[in-house]
């Protein structure tokens, strides 16, 4: 399955909320291997998740 | 009767604060509290014998808040996820390739970064922000969020996608200097 970058952004986001089917996970790996933009995008979403977790810590302390 | 009415009335400010925190919308909060007070006065008989007026009122208010969230989620449903399509060409390729954020770990150690993050969160549409915070801040699973907000899993994923896309763009612009 060939994914466009737009489809990748949706799957990356969904993958943070549920376990994606095996085929989708493989297709994402294949896409990341050839696309720096989507690799960066995926890291940015992880940074956002991490930042919200830290925000919660800060509010508690 | 008058005594009960004034005791209920005295809880208004507390209930309003509670509703405002959940709904993040002054009008909706005011409405939910008003409905709660009306229901409480009509239901005085069912309060008889219960220990704590505030707890009882808050219980009613919670139902009113969930009703309000459901109503606004039905309205939000009309909007689509396509607002971010403008980032891509017709074949779904990035018009502008995302560049790596320089040193995100360092950003997470800076107080100003979190001020910017809160600014960006504040710019999200209310419904989107609410769903995103239920997921990321409260750590709820999507099926719990769906149930609570009475939305479909697909709608939930769309809202979470929109939140992440909007936050990413906002942080790009306001912090990572893009």
Quaternary structure annotation: heterodimer
CATH superfamily of the largest domain in chain B: Winged helix-like DNA-binding domain superfamily/Winged helix DNA-binding domain
Instruction: Find the count of extended strands of chain B (DSSP E, 2+ residues).
Output: 0
Mean pLDDT of chain B: 88
Relative helix content of chain A: over 70%
Structural class of chain B: mainly alpha
Give the topology string of chain A: H per helix, E per strand: HHH
Distance between the termini of chain A: 47 Å
Structure description:
- The complex is a heterodimer of chains A (61) and B (178).
- With 61 residues, chain A is mainly alpha-helical.
- Chain A has one domain (5-60).
- Chain A has helices at residues 5-15, 22-34, 36-60.
- Chain B has 178 residues and is an all-alpha fold.
- Chain B folds into two domains: 2-76, Rna Polymerase Sigma Factor, Chain: A; 81-174, Orthogonal Bundle (Arc Repressor Mutant, subunit A).
- Chain B contains ten helices and no strands.
- Chain B is elongated and about 65 Å long.
- The mean pLDDT of chain B is 88.
- Classes of the chains: A mainly alpha (61), B mainly alpha (178).
- The interface between A and B is medium-sized, with 30 and 35 residues.
